[in-house]
Amino acid sequence: MVRGAVSFTVANRQGAGLGSASAIIARMTRTFDLDRFFSIPRLSGLRLSPDGRRLAVVVARPAGDGKKMVNSIWQLDAEGDAPPVRLTRSAPGESGAEYLPDGSLLFVSSRPDPDAKQDEKDDDETAALWLLPATGGEARVLAAPPGGIDGLRVASEAGTIVFGSELHPGAVTLQDDTARHKARKEAGVSALLFDSFPIRHWDHYLGPRERRLFAADQPGRTDEHLAEPTDLTPEPGSGLLDAHFDVTADGSTVVTGWLRAEDVVRPRYDLVAIDRTTGARRTLAGDAWFEEPAASPDGRWVACIRSTLGSPEEAPQTSLWLVELAAGESDLAAGESDPGDHGGGPPTRGKEAVSGGDLTPDLDRWPRSPLWAPDGKAIFFLAEDHGNGAVFRLQLASGKVTRLTNTGAYTDLCVSPDGARLFALRSALDSPPVPVMLDARAPDQEPRQLRSPVEEAGSLELPGRVERIEMAAADGTIVESWLVLPPTAAATTPAPLALFIHGGPLSSWDGWTWRWNSQVFAARGYAVLLPDPALSVGYGQAFIQRGWGRWGEEPFRDLMAAVDGALARDDIDAERTVAMGGSFGGYMANWVAGHTDRFKAIVTHASLWELRGFHGTTDWGPTLELEFGDPYLDASLYEAASPHRFVDAIRTPVLVIHGEKDARVPISEGLRLWTDLRRHGVDARFLYFPDENHWILKPQNSRLWYETVLAFLDHHALGREWVRPALV
After folding, report:
1. Mean pLDDT across the chain, nearest whole number?
2. Which of 14, 270, 657, 728 has the fewest CB atoms inside 10 Å of its own CB, making it the most exposed?
């Protein structure tokens, strides 16, 4: 094995400087192990009340039987002084919190409606819309569509409620949809009939229902339920599949992505506006992938994320985009279908203080999650930046972009009514998500942590200390990695190394994760290397382009260079190394297995194995053609990048992991990989989850995942006896 030299190494503990966050993890009450790991509350969905005084956050914990995660909603003090208060409690749990203008809290839950008549109850667990009054008292059901609630937004001034729900094609009312559902159920029919792409999405087949958007006025204090919601999108087909949406402050217009799937090779999301009163739909911008629309406070503009579609020659590009809400050429009456793309692209960027088009032409990063300042003069957004999910501020008049944070990964941005403060959830490799407060203007700041439900779980000390290392790849490009070191790592006691390969591939290692948690491995004594090879975001467009369509080339060489850099250290044991990855990371783990024997063991989760066959079985395989071309005319690029061709070179023991319900990387990939490995005499095991999808989500299954992976690695890398987990 050839060991390269480290170009330079920079120590940079991600949690450094965050005083109160570090304080929480600096006090140890017991050893950090799987029990401790699974006891940590998981925070998501932070929302700020209209008066800026309260925050709502969703807290997830394992149910008593450990078979699922259960959510509850907690209230936090925005000043960080008062202790957190639990607002909801039920066995099914609650999520999707949104505030009404009067401070009442909306949420989504499948908890039983105590006011429902016996003949109205259904055995199916369907998510309903609930309201918790700002003045206190019991929560009540506002709407319980038979297709559940899928997405929720509130007009900040008018209080108009917009929500997604799924209805059967042809259903005119929610009552009609109920009748159609009942007829299928009583007949015992589960068959689905498809006539267009896609037919699956992530972990389920689409249909028989289709997602629609509904709007309703804010309920009065004495109203028990919403008035009959208005169906804004009758007969949408697959148009609203996975689409983000928003509503203007006055409630007059809904803006949403709209899937155009007529060309299965080049699907896209147009940006459309829907009149709340008439249902008329206009295309504001098309011929690209428009996501995460956010209406401006004055209702004149829409900020969104625009991504080009890419081609085998050019990787896609992503930018923060501005569209005038009055734009658009395709006027549609309610219920009409759009025959295709009508143009209606965004206006070009001009010399005015606020103009349409690309707002970040000079920012060599991929923006996401735009959020308007209350005065409409600035837009906040997130973007990956050298292994951190950073917060940025764009001043519209000048076009100036300011990075507000330089460590940690942020989600769920909220802005105070006066625009002076931001609130978010922040995590890092050495900190689970915690609520924090930021100054809305100060560059590269350290946030202030707020009091959080995490505190009630007790303090803990995480075992892994985090450093950033950098290594020059074969072509001179600097490859950055995080290295998580266990307490025992030293020159006299070098630690075994576990290489983690991220999925995506347009992704990066930027914060805490519950599914591939490096601290769990550090607690076991492993040093964990988390590199960002070619195709990773946060390092510029050229860094993505150098790996585009070349999965087995630069990305592989970058990973090996990063490993060389780590192994050059005297606190890492070069003779005890393992590699593991999931999804695209699993693809790379398979590629590594066929191209080097330097690792003692390899773990490959939900991995791609034979790319040409994968094209036809994944939920939307034709989009691979944007990177690898048309396989019906020339499959050479698929063949060249397919790991299965090198199965006869694999000598390393392999643990294959796959979920039956995975539609993104179907179980067929795992089955063929397993068969090929065993056919070629590879020492391999197959961990199969019949009730999981692309991710292993149920707490007991997740625990079993960690137990099996660690037992497999300990056996092959550390020479310990193989210990089969008790429940498999």
Report:
1. 90
2. 728
CATH 3.40.50.1820 intervals, the chain:
585-728
Residue 255, pLDDT > 60, answer yes
User: 205 and 191 in contact (C-beta within 8 Å)?
Assistant: no
- Burial readout 260-281 (b: 16 or more C-beta within 10 A, e: otherwise): bbeeeebbbbbbbbbbbeebbb
**Of how many residues is the chain composed?**
728
Give dist(CA 277, CA 506) in Å, integer.
Answer: 40
CATH homologous superfamily of domain 585-728? Alpha/Beta hydrolase fold, catalytic domain (3.40.50.1820)
Q: How is residue 506 written in tokens?
A: 């347009």
Each residue of 385-426: pLDDT tens digit? 999 999 999 999 999 999 999 999 999 999 999 999 999 999
pLDDT band at 720 (very low <50, low <70, confident <90, very high): very high
Query: Is the model more confident about 4 or about 478?
Result: 478
pLDDT: is 36 or 13 the higher one?
Answer: 36
Query: Which position has the token pair 């809904």?
Result: 254
C-alpha neighbours within 13 Å on the C-beta side of residue 718? 18
- Nearest residue to 265 (alpha-carbon basis) of 612, 626, 506, 611: 626
Non-local CB neighbours of 6 within 8 Å, separated by 6+ positions: 469, 470, 471, 565, 568, 569
pLDDT of residue 327: 72
User: Helical H runs in 284-332?
Assistant: none
Helices 584-595 and 554-567 cross at an angle (nearest 10°) of: 70
Peptide bond into 169 cis (omega under 30): no
Whole-number Å distance between alpha carbons of 667 and 624: 18
Place of tokens 């319980």: 144
Residues 607-662: pLDDT tens digits?
999 999 999 999 999 999 999 999 999 999 999 999 999 999 999 999 999 999 99
Taken in order 115, 121, 127, 129, is the CA torsion positive or negative? negative
| The pair of three-digit structure tokens given for residue 70, joined into one six-digit string | 């259960």
User: Regarding predicted confidence, which is higher, 109 or 353?
Assistant: 109
Per-residue pLDDT reduced to its tens digit, 93-146: 999 999 999 999 999 999 999 887 755 555 567 999 999 999 888 999 999 999
Q: What fold, for 1-40+379-582? A: Rossmann fold (3.40.50)
The alpha carbon of 64 is separated from its chain's Cα centroid by a whole number of angstroms, namely 26
Give 365: exposed, middle or buried? Use CB within 10 Å, 0-12, 13-18, 19+: buried
Handedness of CA 128, 132, 133, 134 (dihedral sign): negative
